[in-house]
Write a structure and sequence with these properties.
Helix content is 28%, strand content 31%. The chain has 3 helices and 6 strands. The protein has a 4-stranded antiparallel β-sheet. Strands 1-2 form a two-stranded antiparallel ribbon.
Amino acid sequence: MSIETLRRWARDGRVRSTRTRGGQRLVPLVEITRVLARRRRERVRAPRPATSARNRFEGIVTRVERDRVAAVVEVLAGPHRLVSLMTAEAATELGLKVGDRATCVVKATNVVVEVARERRVAS
């Protein structure tokens, strides 16, 4: 879980936190354990759609930018940052906003991997 998530949870009252004299936020481990256990229980109860896609990244929406036609939605899923481009209408229908939990489903039929070749320096 990211620092950003902990800040948001503390601000929203989802976890109890205190501040040091220097202003650092302290969140007791028992608070984090409590919230994570609740999230696991909710995840187990939530119905999972049948799909052929196997790459699922559960995370937190960190950015939603809309114009009249398109929307850019960014999700932080562990160490992964996923960005989706969708219609503004789809983003509105989903009710996406920063802080929401979301699952990004990635289905690729073609994946290209490139590596840098060793460059030889002419002498």
